[in-house]
Amino acid sequence: MKTQIITLESHDDLISVRDRLSWAKTPRILLVWPKFEKVALRQVDLKVLQRHAASLGAQLGLVTRTRQVRAEAEALGIPVFESAGQAQKMAWPKMKHKQFPHKAPDKSLREQREQVQVQEEAWRVHPVTRVLALTVGVLAVLALVALFIPRAQVTLKPVTQTQSIVISVNASPKLNDVFITGGIPVREKRTIVDGSQTVVVTGEGIVPQSKAKGAVEFRNLTQQAVTIPAGTIVQTVDAIRFVTTEDGEVPAGVGKNIELPIEAVEGGIAGNLDAETITAIEGRLGLSLSATNLEPTIGGRELSSVQASDADRTRVKVLLMKTLEEQARQNFLRELGSGDLLFQNAMTVSQIFSEEYDPPAGAAGTKLTLTMQVEFTAQYASASDLTELATLAMNASLPSGFAPASAAVTVNSLTNPFLAEDGSSHWSMRAERLIAQSYDTTQVTQLVLGYGVKKAQANLDKNLPSKSSPKIQLSPSWWQWVPLLPFRIDVVTQ
Q1: Residue 467, CA atoms < 13 Å, CB-side half-sphere
Q2: Which of 404, 378, 382 has the alpha carbon at shortest distance from 392?
Q3: Are 189 and 328 in contact (CB under 8 A)?
Q4: Same-domain pairing of 315 and 428
Q5: What CA–CA distance (Å, rounded) separates 484 from 280?
Q6: pLDDT 10s digits, 379-433
């Protein structure tokens, strides 16, 4: 007899083995237990597998040498073999089928059931009663259809008008929020611009040609020798300075002296001095030595030339700043959003990054060029703040029975903003928007509820102010009465 052999694995459980049994198409199914691995099947699981195999029309057998499994299988009447070959050679014990005694039905129960049946009353089976019941049922269905199938839509065109209000606006840097009293925060924006400006020089100046030269005698005031390095500064009472051009050393002893050559620090005729006009030594050497020029200093020369004066530098800076300010204003206007209001008198210079004159101060030249890079700061009122202020103010003065027709608000300045001493800006503006007559949907529904189309139309025309006559649209179109249920009526405002 054909036998289906199923080798079990250590990971098999009741569900997996039961599924594998379902694929068997033989009258015998043999489960082969692994020799050195443990399978998680209990005695109750073996019982379930035995019954499942029986439901498939097959007999279940085991191949195992595990003592406990053999004992549990034999207790359930499952044949156990030493090997698969032995199972195929040996005869299997026949399956035992339980026989259940057949019990004939008790005839007395049918008799008892017939005795307790209640006879229906005569009027219920009368044809008139049945016709009436059918009529009531049909009418009930029609009533439900009349209540829930029809739908009505009432279209209203409300009366509209323009709401206008004048608002005094106060934009302050101290505010962070919009207030209905007219206060809004000041917003700031920054921009960096650069440029150059050239003007014709109108001033005259002196250009040094050479430096005055001479000699100074240094006299020792101490008993020690004193070294005088080249570059030692000596000067007059008027702070005309000279520098030594050679090193020297005054011998030890009070009154000892030495003469060293000097040259003026700055060129020009200012260095041409009379004898004995140089009297001071800069630095610590002035404590040990005295100095004087025994002969006049000579050789300082200078020429007259055209060069920029302070007035020229001021003039070119004023012209350039005007150009840069206008450039910054155009930048602000491009960067601001639609509806933002720029305060013309609140634009300031926040920082100067560079300022270069060509030629520099003291140099000759017929033209003066100034190059600058400047950061400007501007104050403005944002369109969103102005719209929010206008909405708050108009909502507070909204006429009774009206509501905003849309969220669009038009804002126009009536006066130019002026800057107060505290840094705030003040001006007046006009705000306008479209408002429409508002309707109570419950009232509209009650005016048409359950009426015919003509009566409902008359009620709407009489009780509701409207730009044009309200329209009632029914569905289905052949239905002539407004529904009795409020939720089947839609009120639409155009």
Answers
A1: 12
A2: 404
A3: no
A4: yes
A5: 118
A6: 999 999 999 999 999 999 998 888 898 889 999 999 999 888 888 999 999 999 9
Mean pLDDT, range 320-326, rounded to an integer: 94
Helices and strands: H and E segment counts in the chain = 10, 27
Q: Is the pLDDT of residue 355 over 50?
A: yes
Beta carbons within 10 angstroms of residue 298's beta carbon: 12
Q: Are 56 and 95 in contact (CB under 8 A)?
A: no
Asked if 175 and 68 sit in the same domain, the reply is: no
**424 and 314 belong to one structural domain:** yes
Q: Helix 14-22 to helix 43-55 angle, to the nearest 10 degrees?
A: 20
Q: What's the predicted TM-score (pTM) here?
A: 0.50
Closest CA to 455 of 476, 479, 480, 490: 480
Q: Flag whether pLDDT at 143 surpasses 90.
A: no
Measured CA to CA, the distance from residue 405 to residue 242 in angstroms comes to 88
**Closest alpha carbon to 448 in 478, 472, 465, 477:** 472
Residue 115, H or E segment:
helix 107-116
Instruction: Please determine, for residue 245, whether its predicted confidence score (pLDDT) is greater than 70.
Output: yes
Question: Among 356, 364, 250, 234, which Cα is nearest to 307's?
Answer: 364
pLDDT 10s digits, 18-76: 888 888 888 888 888 888 788 888 888 889 988 988 888 888 899 888 888 888 888 88
**Coil, strand or helix: which one is 132?**
helix
Count up the domains in the chain and report the number.
4
| Structural domain range at position 49 | 3-89
- In this prediction, residue 346 carries a pLDDT of 77
326/279 same-domain check: no
**Is 352 a member of any domain?**
yes
Closest CA to 155 of 477, 402, 486, 468: 468
Q: How far apart are CA 447 and CA 287, in angstroms?
A: 115
What CA–CA distance (Å, rounded) separates 306 from 204?
4
Q: How many Cβ atoms from other residues are within 10 Å of residue 392's Cβ?
A: 16
